[in-house]
Design a protein that fits this description.
This protein is of the alpha/beta class. 40% of the residues lie in helices and 15% in strands. The chain is built from 17 helices and 13 strands. The strands form 2 sheets. Strands 1, 2, 3, 6, 7, 8, 9, 10, 11, 12 and 13 form an 11-stranded mixed β-sheet that branches. A two-stranded antiparallel ribbon has the order 4-5. Strand 4 and strand 5 form a beta hairpin. It is globular, with a radius of gyration of 26 Å.
Amino acid sequence: MASGRVSRRQMMQAAGAFGVGALVLPRRSVAAEVLTCLEWGGYDSPDYFQPYVAKYGAQPNFSIFAGEEDALAKVLAGFAADVMHPCNYSVARFVNAGVAKEIDTARLSHWADVFPSLQAAEGVVMDGKVVMAPADWGNSSIAYRPDLMPPEFAQNPTWAIFYDEEYAGRVAMTDNEMAIVIGAMVGGMPYDEAYKLEGAALEAAAKEWGTKAVNTAKFLWNDSSEVQQAMASGEIVAAYAWNDLVANLRAEGIPVELAAPKEGMFTWFCGLTLLNTGKADEQAAYDFIDAWLSPETGKALIEGSGYGHANIKAFEIADPQAVANMGITDPVEMMKNTIVFKTPTDAVQEGFNKVWADTKALKY
């Protein structure tokens, strides 16, 4: 009967012939739904969630996305995912779309070890509710070649070099509206005002600082390997960069430093968000998030990618040289003194997109 070759009625009749009034067959166990995660390419490696694999005996199902908008569109189209790995600037998109749910941090054994500045950062908490568990982070700052720069710069690093004619053709700025934001900060405006410029104030900042950044830069980069190669060869002496560039060049024996500019160093971060569209047991989702927050995962991330991890204890067990190669000496102190990126409104972002496109058209 279990294989479908006889009916239940036929089975009961055969049992009756042997004097069996009733026969109960064991029911087939129903396999639990496998956890499904929307993830960045490369982060589907078991190195980042070993505690989960140890508990469940296998890794989750992964769907790799190119960007958060791609992932959101997939979920809204009906894809059943349990966990998503967004960055802080995009979490609101999932919350506002009604596909994210609150995280009960009491169910995360490593939550207490997350950097305090990340626990309460924009994108982690919305309307008093935790909607993302921070996991990976990095800095956006000035990577520079100390052997090719005057010693005065190391003593007083500043973002101003990206707007200084003296460095024309010797620096690389990111192909991003941050060139305008940072310029406004060089001019004395606090970040909390600069990132949400609008209207005439934005137009003025773009005309002054955006134009200077475009004209000074050897190139505006999108590909991190491009800027890394240019710095390795000495084609440029400084660039807007992330920790991984510093780690990679140091691994090649090339002298490079990550500056702490007087106007401020930036921190970006991503993490795990619970979705309400999945089918797996919720505990599995919490176990996956907790695995990502473990110090062992942090050690693998720091040593393997050159990025930071949300768990403070990860820096205690990671190879000290790997931490140093990121350009970090004291991660706790550094986190206290960096500017965590904030998310502009859609209207502000669209305004920045337009003026930046218009500004960089002057160069290309």
